[in-house]
Write a structure and sequence with these properties.
It is a single chain. With 622 residues, this protein is mainly alpha-helical. The chain has helices spanning 21-37, 39-64, 69-118, 122-138, 168-198, 200-211, 216-255, 260-270, 276-292, 297-322, 330-344, 346-365, 370-376, 384-393, 397-408, 413-434, 439-455, 503-516, 555-568, 587-593, 603-621, and strands spanning 493-497, 521-523, 543-549, 573-579, 599-600. The protein folds into 3 domains: 14-81 and 182-376, no CATH class; 384-458; 485-621, Response regulator (Rossmann fold, 3-Layer(aba) Sandwich), CATH 3.40.50. Helix 18 links the parallel strand 1 (493-497) and strand 2.
Length: 622
């Protein structure tokens, strides 16, 4: 299903929707009971609504071409009825021809089964075993009558009951009675479709009143957008399934399968049925191929045709048309098919996916119904930072690496750190400072993040397939340009963590990205500012970056660290990188007041500033 723009996904306040869990559960039970016991009324209504989604674009197109509204609606509905009636007549004719040829097909199947039996293989042994079991069950002790009564046994007298020949009216009633209910349902659906298309604006206004009318402009825009997109989606799905059915019918005709039109129509219809539809569609042509072809070439061709066709539709054509999928998770599709089939039988199986798509769209727009999108939609239930934090908290190193590999296909390493890893560390830091996470869990997160950084040491800064961009310029350029000479030496850039629980991880990320740009960045030892550190020459430092995740270091502590850095390294440019700082954050303003050379909001911006300052200092030295 096509993605909705951000403006259309803003939540609508719902009116009359239960707020607490018990009320929601009671409402759900009442709704399920109504759906089950009122199915004779609701099934035609659901079919009419879905057909109106399909026919609405056609009716709008006729109106744009100058046709009045009422004739346009009636013409579009009559065209749909004629198409469906034609398909039904064709299927009936093809079924009649198939019934006439069944004896010949039965003889061929019997011959093939006989050849299999003659091989003395597994089938024959299984039949012998089943025959033995049935004979054992049939051997039951018979009741022996008393000896004196055996001679008095009387032979049974046959009795035959004859029914009088039915009258003409009874015959007609027996023929028409099974057809009355389907014909009545079809008639109700046609009438409902006409009225839904004629009064769709009035119905939309009533739905708006139900879901929330406090923000009328936004509600109307969201509902119109949802209805328009659903109409396009269902119409496109119907067109694709019809085209696929026509293609499969022609391919089966070329292969030589009898009644190819029937199987093409069945294939198009079964594509509306999730999962099992494909197996139902392939079963009948495969059986006919087995019964028609003396060899095995035709059945193999049928299997290959359906495998290739379904694979191309599911993996190539539908993603190109719909974006990626129907918007439903696979588990939701299975659950929806089971639920609607239990409620409404075979009709429920056909409408399961369209009805569930409507529920997901409703959950995207109505705030109190957001649980529908979470439960049924295919969007990840957790945002990438939340997923990162959850996997780090559970010690899932493989999960962290898989997530990083997936995101780094389309984004550079610095963007991944800024948008996923650092916000996840901010979540972890929040929990740690509130005491919501045990100390051993905090250490486990540290260990997992350190392991991930080690795994990403060989990762390129820019994602493969994306243009290499210079952070200093808007125009794409190759990043093979050397780093500023003043920053190329080891230890020329120092990344010092703040006092927050996860500031050290932020410092390691910044140092790693700087090294990938050819800058000799190192992470400062924990006791660097307390005294001299053996083997560490502060005179080589040209830039010193204080790295902090917003919320971990107090303003006073950060300003103190910045002043200590300036005193210990008077020749270095002292800067700061404060990640996840919102508009209300006070730490960046405090560091700017402390006259930091640069205060950047993330790793990508810090790398850009480091390159700019390095080039400027190199030009001054030259």
């Amino acid at each position: 299903m096509p993605e909705f723009p951000a403006s259309a996904r803003r939540r609508i306040p719902a009116a009359g929707v239960p707020t607490d869990g018990a009320a929601i559960a009671q409402a759900a039970l009442v709704i399920i009971a109504v759906l089950y016991f009122a199915r004779d009324l609701l099934v035609p209504l659901a079919l009419a609504i879905l057909l109106s989604f399909i026919l609405a674009p056609i009716a709008r197109a006729l109106r744009r071409w100058g046709m009045p509204r009422v004739p346009g609606v009636i013409l579009s509905v009559l065209a749909a009825v004629m198409v469906l009636a034609s398909l039904g007549l064709v299927m009936g004719r093809q079924l009649a021809d198939l019934a006439a040829e069944l004896p010949a097909y039965q003889a061929e199947v019997t011959r093939k089964l006989s050849s299999i039996h003659a091989s003395g293989g597994l089938v024959e042994r299984a039949q012998e075993m089943l025959r033995g079991l049935s004979n054992g069950v049939a051997r039951e002790p018979r009741e022996v009558p008393p000896r004196g009564l055996q001679a008095e046994a009387v032979a049974p007298i046959p009795v035959e009951i004859r029914q009088p020949d039915p009258a003409a009216l009874e015959t007609l009633q027996g023929v028409l009675a099974p057809m009355l209910h389907p014909l009545a349902t079809i008639g109700i659906v046609i009438v409902l479709v006409v009225f839904v298309l004629l009064y769709r604006e009035d119905l939309r206004d009533r739905v708006i009143r139900l879901v929330g009318a406090r923000d009328l402009h936004r509600t109307v825009a969201a509902m119109d957008d949802a209805a328009y997109r659903l109409s396009r989606f269902f119409l496109a799905q119907t067109a694709l399934n019809a085209a696929f059915g026509a293609f499969m019918g022609m391919a089966l005709f070329v292969i030589g399968v009898p009644q190819p039109i029937l199987w093409g129509i069945l294939t198009g219809l079964m594509r509306f049925v999730p999962f099992v539809g494909t197996f139902v569609a392939v079963a009948f042509p495969l059986l006919l191929a087995l019964a028609t072809d003396p060899g095995w070439t035709m059945p193999i061709l049928v299997l290959v045709l359906f495998a290739v066709g379904e694979g191309a539709m599911g993996q190539v054509v539908e993603p190109m048309v719909f974006g990626h999928s129907t918007g439903l998770s696979p588990i939701a599709v299975i659950a929806a098919a089971t639920f609607w089939t239990w409620l409404w039988g075979p009709v429920g199986l056909l409408v399961a996916v369209p009805l569930t798509v409507c529920l997901v769209v409703l959950g995207r727009h109505v705030d109190r119904l957001e649980f529908l999108e979470v439960a049924l939609g295919d969007r990840p239930p957790l945002d990438p930072p939340e997923t990162f934090y959850q996997r780090a908290l559970m010690g899932d190193a493989d999960g962290l690496e898989e997530q990083a590999e997936a995101l780094l296909r389309d984004a550079p390493l610095s963007a991944y750190y800024d948008s996923v890893a650092l916000p996840a560390l901010a979540l972890a830091q929040d929990d740690a400072l509130r005491g919501g996470v045990a100390e051993e869990r905090v250490q486990a997160v540290h260990a997992r993040v350190a392991g991930l950084l080690e795994d990403l040491e060989e990762e390129e800064e820019e994602a493969p397939g994306r243009p290499m961009t210079d952070p200093d310029a808007d125009a794409p350029r190759a990043l093979e340009a050397p780093a500023p000479a003043a920053l190329a030496g080891p230890g020329s850039v120092l990344c010092l963590p703040g006092r927050g629980p996860f500031d050290d991880a932020a410092a390691m990320m910044l140092a790693q990205v700087l090294r990938k740009r050819g800058i000799g960045a190192v992470v400062a030892p924990p006791d660097l500012l307390r005294g001299d550190v053996t083997g560490f020459d502060l005179g080589l430092v040209r830039q010193a970056w204080l790295c902090a995740v917003e919320g971990g270091s107090s303003t006073a502590a950060a300003r103190y660290l910045l002043r200590r850095l300036r005193r210990r390294m008077p020749a270095a440019e002292v800067c700061a990188m404060v990640a996840c700082a919102g508009p209300e954050a006070r730490l960046p303003a405090a560091l700017r007041a402390e006259e930091a050379v640069a205060v950047e909001p993330g790793i990508a911006a810090a790398v850009k500033a480091a390159m700019r300052l390095g080039r400027a200092s190199g030009a001054e030295t030259g």
